[in-house]
Each structure stands twice: as C-alpha cells, then as structure tokens.
Amino acid sequence: MFYNGLILMAPRGFSFNQNPMVLNFTNGVLDLEEGKFSNLYQRELFQNIQFPFGFDRDQKCPLWMGFLKSLKFDDETILRLQEWVGYCLLPKVIGTLQKSLFFIGEKLRIIDHGYMLFLGVTIRKKQAI
Q1: pTM of the entire predicted model
Q2: For residue 67, which phi and psi values (nearest 5 degrees)?
Q3: Which of helix, strand or coil describes residue 63?
Q4: Cβ of 86: how many Cβ atoms within 10 Å?
Q5: Angular region, 35: left φ>0, alpha ψ -120 to 50, beta rest
Q6: How does pLDDT run across 73-104, given as a tens digit for each residue?
Q7: How many secondary structure helices (H) and strands (E) does the chain include?
Q8: Residue 81 phi/psi, 5° resolution?
C-alpha cells in the first residue's frame, strides 16, 4: 500500500477495525458485547475509526430527547428510533444485525408525524461524525 508518501507493509488478510463491536472514542473504547468501557486502547484491533468525542455512559442529551418528544411518538417508538440510530453509528454490522427502518402509514401522515424530520436529523448527524 502507498499512503501519503509512506509504504505500508501489511500481511495478507490484514484489515483495520478487526472487531466492529468495539467502538473507539477520544477517551477510550467501548466493548458492545461486554458492555464495558475502558480508557485503555487496544492497539491489536488496528482501529482507524474514532468518534470525535468522549464516551460518557451517564451523559444526557436534552436537545435530542426534546426533539424526539416533539415528534409526538409513543415511548416505545422513541426507544426503537434511538436503537436504530445506535445501529447506524456502528462502523460495520456483523451476524444477523442489519440496518433498516420501515415507515408505515399514509404519505402526508408520515410527514406530519415527523418521520422525515427524524431521518433528516439522523442523516445530518451521521455525516458530521
């Protein structure tokens, strides 16, 4: 490989981000399978994707929650939408995990209920990361 004037030697089959269930933050890594956060980076995973912010399990986001509540969805729908956005933040999906979302209803009703606004916000936030 040739990258920015450097020659990189990598063995066959080498890949970055070898465990997509470990997310890299500026203050450490989150293992999604174990649900544990560590401020120690795992160099052997060769992660080249990093969220541009620190992880804080107790962090609240009143702006995001206020936005979701303004859409007038029931609590279960809000939980499912948050879960879907979480899946979209994963750098890669493995196993049976897939990223898809279906909106069911009449066209004008869907727009009135904020699904399109939700998608627009989600896409813009994902592009900002």
Answers
A1: 0.59
A2: -60, -50
A3: helix
A4: 10
A5: left
A6: 788 888 888 888 877 776 566 666 666 666 66
A7: 4, 5
A8: -65, -40
The DSSP letter of residue 8 is P
Assess contact for 42 and 29: CB atoms under 8 A. yes
Residue type, 69: K
Closest CA to 123 of 88, 97, 93: 88
d(CA 60, CA 112): 27
How wide is the angle at C-alpha 128 spanned by C-alphas 27 and 67, nearest 5°? 95
| Closest by CA position to 95, among listed 11, 40, 16, 21 | 21
Question: In one letter, which amino acid is 46?
Answer: F
Which tens digits make up the pLDDT trace of 28-78?
Answer: 999 888 889 998 887 777 888 888 889 998 988 888 888 888 877 788 888
Show the tokens assigned to 46: 């060769």
Joined together, the tokens standing for residue 11 give: 């063995």
